[in-house]
């Protein structure tokens, strides 16, 4: 597909992580004490929670906090207007797990390679930028994960770009109850803990950005809800085994505020076309208890 910005490659950057980073991530998304293989570095099956690579484009090789806005604004996309990241929200993320992530990058070199898949002008509401990010080990060229994501730049549309294709939807069944349900409570500190993984957007820490965007104050990272929902799916339907998930995706539908309780409902859909024996599609929805859906279009491939 061609269009403004399509194929634009962002500068490649090196990423790194330690066992401690994996422990913090697992704790911050709700892994529990009966999942010590995600939470205790001396466990004989110690593993990275599968979605950890989603953090690396924020973290890079940092050991300390960084200026989120400065980094986000560092590379404008050729052929399209320069968008203000102070008004950006996550749209949708899909990750494919291609190789198990090592529990530390120490002694190896990894990098993120990113390119633009599409830039879509939605008029007055804003602009959608769709990108692909792959985690690659330098030297071997092995690809560990592939993420396709969209960012929505609020109120930054109307520049004459293409509207974009229709999205593919994965609605849950309406004729039967979910096969599993999981509840994830949050607290006023949830986002303050999660941001220590490397996602330092001020929107999730201080009231001013959220007030300006109409949220009334800070909101929890959409990727917290996304990652904690993946944990719910893997724990309930995949035995908490990182080898038992192949794909995961969801659309960010509405904000979550600190203190909200998240409820995820999951439906087993059976073996999908082209899937290997033992794998099946799972569809899910996550909503705020007593409120709106916050993650829609949920789909995972689980064993």
Name some characteristics of this structure.
303 residues; alpha+beta; 10-stranded antiparallel β-sheet; isomerase; HotDog_dom_sf; enoyl-CoA hydratase activity
Tell how many strands the DSSP assignment holds: 10
Structural classification:
alpha+beta
* N→C terminal distance: 33 Å
Biggest sheet statistics: 10 strands, antiparallel
Rg, alpha carbons = 19 Å
Strand content: 25-35%
Q: Average pLDDT value?
A: 95
Query: In order across it, which strands form the biggest sheet?
Result: 1-3-4-5-2-7-10-9-8-6
**Run of helices and strands:** EHHHHEEEEEHHHEEEE
| Number of continuous helical runs | 7
Counting copies of identical and different chains, the oligomeric state is: single chain
Describe the structure.
There is one protein chain. By secondary structure, the protein is of the alpha+beta class. 17% of the residues lie in helices and 30% in strands. The protein contains 7 helices and 10 strands. The protein has helices at 19-28, 36-39, 56-59, 68-72, 190-194, 207-212, 222-237, and strands spanning 13-15, 88-97, 110-121, 126-137, 143-154, 180-185, 245-252, 261-270, 280-288, 293-302. The chain has a 10-stranded antiparallel β-sheet. The two termini are 33 Å apart. GO terms for molecular function: (3S)-3-hydroxyacyl-CoA dehydrogenase (NAD+) activity; 17-beta-hydroxysteroid dehydrogenase (NAD+) activity; enoyl-CoA hydratase activity; isomerase activity. Residues 19-155 form the Peroxisomal multifunctional enzyme type 2-like N-terminal domain. Keywords: Isomerase. Pfam families: MaoC_dehydratas, MFE-2_hydrat-2_N.
């Amino acid at each position: 597909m061609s269009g403004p910005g399509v194929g634009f490659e962002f500068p490649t950057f090196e990423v790194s992580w330690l066992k401690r980073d994996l422990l913090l991530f697992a704790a911050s998304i709700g892994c529990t004490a009966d999942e010590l293989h995600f939470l205790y570095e001396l466990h004989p099956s110690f593993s990275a929670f599968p979605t950890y690579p989603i953090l690396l484009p924020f973290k890079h090789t940092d050991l300390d906090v960084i200026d989120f806005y400065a980094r986000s604004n560092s590379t404008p996309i050729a052929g399209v207007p320069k968008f203000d990241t102070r008004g950006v929200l996550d749209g949708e993320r899909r990750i494919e797990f291609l190789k198990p992530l090592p529990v530390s990058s120490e002694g190896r070199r990894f990098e993120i390679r990113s390119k633009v898949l599409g830039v879509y002008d939605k008029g007055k509401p804003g602009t959608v930028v769709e990108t692909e990010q792959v985690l690659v080990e330098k030297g071997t060229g092995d690809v560990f994960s592939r993420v396709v994501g969209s960012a929505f730049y609020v109120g930054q549309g109307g520049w004459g770009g293409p509207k974009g294709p229709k999205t593919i939807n994965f609605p849950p069944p309406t004729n039967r109850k979910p096969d599993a349900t999981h509840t994830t409570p949050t607290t006023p500190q949830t986002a303050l803990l999660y941001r220590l993984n490397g996602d330092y957007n001020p929107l999730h820490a201080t009231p001013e950005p959220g007030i300006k965007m109409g949220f009334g104050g800070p909101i929890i990272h959409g990727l917290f809800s996304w990652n904690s929902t993946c944990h719910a799916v893997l724990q309930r339907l995949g035995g908490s085994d990182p080898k038992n998930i192949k794909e995961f995706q969801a659309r960010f539908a509405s904000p979550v505020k600190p203190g909200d309780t998240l409820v995820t409902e999951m439906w087993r859909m059976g073996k999908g076309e082209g899937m290997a024996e033992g794998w099946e599609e799972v569809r899910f929805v996550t909503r705020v208890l007593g409120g709106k859906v916050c993650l829609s279009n949920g789909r995972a491939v689980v064993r």
